[in-house]
Design a protein that fits this description.
It is built from eight helices and 14 strands. Strand 8, helix 5 and strand 9 form a beta-alpha-beta unit. Bound molecules: S-adenosylmethionine.
């Protein structure tokens, strides 16, 4: 009889209930196995059909990273022993910590990441040549995933797993790690867009144009300006002076449409619009109406979109399948979802045209 396969999912500790319920609906072949805060594992019930495929897309909008489990370990030697039967060729190494039950931007930056960093150094020293240099995974590569407790909490052992990298995964350890917010950024939304860009491996380029719905005070717009884009921000709220006065090395600047998204005249936003970001603090049923309007206004010129969906309550969670059908009808060729380290009660949809 074949060995049972176990899958692991990395997620925010507070999202575990929603993760499990989404998986129960979308991947009924998964049977809950064990959990730590921020990490949940399932046994795959291979009841003979494709649904039992352990490499099927994750099936939860709350999973930031996922893969197959090799087992638990406590030392570098035990990790290397678990890796042994998987492959003898150099493999990509991702060592990362679970999220503690507190917002990413409130963690002590001097401690975050120290436990996985020390373990990675130990692993590389113990097995020279066993791991590829560098961190970002490339399509098709095998990745060894080693998951630790949060650095500020007691060590409670390691989960060792692996995945084959493709676009259902973020390329960085744990999909993506929190990107610390620079002092110049007007809001924590700077980290939300930067993490979404890193997780999705989408790259807004200098000279391109972005529209952001719900842009005030301007963290995300500031990130896009710093990447060299012209940014049209739509928000009746006040933008930070650093955004309003921004003059980039690429001649790029910010244009404020100080009104609700429904009131922006279609002639006020020039085309092409390469990127659309939406971060309005409205129920997603309403926010998506504006997103739909601006996708139509872009008239086929969009390259990608980052759409924040606020999941503030049970009713919105229940509506998620219908909301996601609406996102899918926006006409992108690829739609992915995740909950980023800096998210609170929200997820992001990342679209590619
Ligand atoms: C979470 S904040 C946005 C943060 C922003 N993305 C940043 O980077 O700093 C939500 C924003 O949505 C705006 N908003 C709410 N309803 C809106 C609407 N109908 N049209 C445009 N903006 C709206 C609010 O004024 C608020 O500034």
């Amino acid at each position: 009889m074949a060995e049972p396969t176990f899958l692991w999912f990395l997620h925010q500790p507070t999202s575990v209930g929603w993760l499990k319920r989404e998986l129960a609906a979308k991947r009924p072949e998964l049977r809950f196995a064990f959990a730590r805060p921020g990490l949940t594992t399932f046994k795959v019930d291979r009841a003979g059909d494709l649904a039992g495929d352990p490499d099927a897309a994750p099936g939860s909008s709350f999973a930031r990273a996922w893969g197959r489990s090799l087992g638990r370990a406590t030392t570098a030697e035990e990790i290397l022993a678990l890796l042994e039967p998987l492959t003898s060729t150099p493999i990509r190494l991702h060592v990362f910590e679970r999220d503690p039950d507190r917002p990413a931007d409130e963690r002590d930056a001097a401690i975050v990441g120290t436990r996985p960093a020390a373990l990675e150094t130990e692993l590389r020293a113990a097995a020279p040549g066993r791991f590829l240099d560098g961190t970002a995974a490339v399509a098709g590569e095998l990745v060894l995933d080693v998951i630790t407790a949060p650095s500020e909490l007691p060590d409670d052992g390691l989960l060792v797993g692996w995945h084959r990298h493709d676009r259902t995964h973020g390329p960085w350890p744990g999909g993506v790690t929190h990107v610390p917010i620079p002092a110049a950024a007007p809001s924590r939304a700077w980290a939300k867009i930067e993490e979404a860009i890193r997780w999705s491996a989408l790259e807004p380029r200098p000279g391109e144009r972005a529209v952001e719905l719900g842009s005030a005070p301007g963290g995300a717009s500031f990130a896009l300006l710093e990447r060299g884009l012209e940014v049209h921000g739509v928000d009746p709220g006040a933008m930070a002076p650093a955004v309003i006065a921004y003059a980039g090395p690429h001649g790029n600047k910010f244009i404020h449409h100080a009104m609700p998204a429904a009131e922006v005249d279609r002639r006020a936003v020039p085309r092409p619009i390469h990127w659309l970001a939406s971060d309005v603090n409205l129920a997603p049923m309403v926010a998506l109406r504006y997103v739909e309007r601006f996708v139509a206004l872009a008239r086929g010129t969009l390259r990608g979109a980052f759409i924040t969906l606020k999941i503030n309550d049970e009713g919105i969670f229940e509506a998620l399948p219908r909301l996601q059908s609406r996102v899918e009808r926006l006409g992108a060729r690829e739609v992915r979802y995740t909950q980023l380290p800096s998210h609170r009660s929200e997820i992001v949809a990342m679209l590619v045209w």
